[in-house]
């Protein structure tokens, strides 16, 4: 136990002496947590529409006004021809182009039906499907209005139809604000990045500089060495996490709905797992550059598969199973559940088992992998 | 010239001796392409849903059956009380619940009107919106089938044409994004340690007493990574064409040229970081930790830039990858020519020159 105390003393001195790294460890996540959630917004608004009106009738004008006043769209350009509108799409200034053909009003009144051409920039699937969905809805609405205008003359023809009224409520976030979804997730990602990178670089740095030899010739046991590396960064991680929670409350007004003690319990176990992962990489690698790239490689996969960017439920089966094999996935899920929904310990206890498993496995490997002889 | 070649050779040795880093370098794009192409999708399916059916009649069961058979939902065990719904939300097994009032079918057949309540998990707003749309569609579909609504006497029929992406290939949007992301991070990180590493190891002294000019030292440092990145680029293009069926519409030489400009920009940024920092740790923390999330966010392929507040739009204007993303999208996916992207090309070139100059200015030829 006394030996461990000495290693800790050494590690803490090393951390506190390098002021730049210390500043980076705290400032980088804090600043990013303040800024990034504002930028990370999946919401689709401001769909740009270019209308080509070949008809120039009162109906087409009405339709254009309706689209413009619907609130979803921004009308761009005063385009006269198909070619001008296509240019706008090519330049990314327009997302949808609507063509109102000649004879639109006449055909509608005489024959009761008329086609409209809608061309959508389909490269961004989400935007194009939501945008064309909105526009179709506006068209249908316009259609109904025309219909009602005519029908009011002989409203007796209106037959009663079935109607199921749907009411819906959004729990936990009644106004569907994005920050609730994003901020806890970004907090976890930042904690993961800083913890993973710092530990991945740590042991290998001693190897590169050569100071690891001095440790190897002492009677320090392997587990003491790994634990001595783990504990200081664990404390740093807990502080970063706390700062993150404060930022979340002060800047975004999100206060955990569930028990803070449970949240910290999970953070504590998660950090052990994460730092163990970093140390494992560090014991395997030969140079800092290598350690950084190996760490980056896995972090990237963990982040993409974590359910932060896309929902895990929608992944194919193999990918879903794979995503459960990364600790980040579990921790993001737990933080979201506790912070946003106020889930209790018993509702998330299986996640704790997963995280503890990762913690034991990764640190065990790190201890086994640390060799005193080369 | 001969000296420069010797230096370049030295740098190549450095790179090729580190097999693991080399492996990661080429493994990264492959894994990303596979993940983005096959695992990640912005589509919403298999979402957990539960039913609180107080009616238990024909109509409610038919609707439940339709929900069950749709691929969007995964029907969990039905619940018996309102409290259970909350419980299920909290253990994370459902994202949505649908409640039928008692006498749902009766109200529907007698009064032609009935109510259904949907509860969604608002903590995930995007999914909530999509789920409500799906459920509304399923229910109104059912209602149509029970009793068709009278036809409108006027019909406007929208014909939707999907430009640039007729087969609705979801990979199309992210391939340019992934290319931009990989270069931005990998190139910057690689060169960001190149100079500072020599400082840390003490070999810097040897470089400084050599007769080579500072600019040539920097160029020699960047060239191996430039070559590697170009090979990497070819690998990514081949993968996206053969694995994901994303084919290039525009001119290949143009894409190639633009990519080289972008790679040089990133390498210069890395050199700059390397010159102003004192340890590899700091250099790498800045280039990876500091750049990873901003690059993901501000390139524009995950989160639309035009939705952001103006200050972030301004930030995205100083991030090189956002221009490269625009260029690649225009040339590769829309098949446009140089006349559409000259402005972005000019900005990128400007950035490259600017960063390289600053890096050179900051290259100290005296050890402190």
Number of helices of chain B: 14
Name the strands of the widest sheet of chain A in spatial order: 2-1-3-4
Give the helices and strands of chain B as they follow along the chain.
Answer: HHEHEHEHEHEHHHHHHHH
Structural class of chain B: alpha/beta
Ends distance of chain A = 26 Å
Helix content of chain A: 55-70%
How many domains make up the 3D coordinates of chain B? 2
Descriptive notes:
The complex is a heterodimer of chains A (374) and B (368). Chain A is built from 14 helices and 5 strands. By secondary structure, chain A is α/β, with parallel strands linked by helices. Chain A has a 4-stranded mixed sheet with strand order 2-1-3-4, sandwiched between helices. The longest helix of chain A has 32 residues, at 178-209. Mean pLDDT of chain A is 84; it is low at 153-159. Chain B is an alpha/beta fold and 368 residues long. Chain B folds into 2 domains: 8-40 and 170-361, no CATH class; 47-146, abc type-2 transporter like domain (abc type-2 transporter like fold, 3-Layer(aba) Sandwich), CATH 3.40.1710. In chain B, 66% of the residues lie in helices and 9% in strands. Chain B is built from 14 helices and 5 strands. Chain B has helices at 2-17, 19-39, 58-69, 82-90, 104-111, 125-146, 171-201, 204-208, 214-242, 252-276, 280-298, 310-318, 320-333, 338-361, and strands spanning 47-53, 73-75, 96-100, 113-121, 155-163. Chain B has a 4-stranded mixed sheet, sandwiched between helices. In chain B, strand 1 (47-53), helix 3 and strand 2 form a beta-alpha-beta unit. In chain B, helix 7 (171-201) packs parallel to helix 10 (252-276), helix 7 (171-201) runs antiparallel to helix 11 (280-298) and helix 10 packs antiparallel against helix 13. The interface between A and B is large, with 121 and 119 residues.
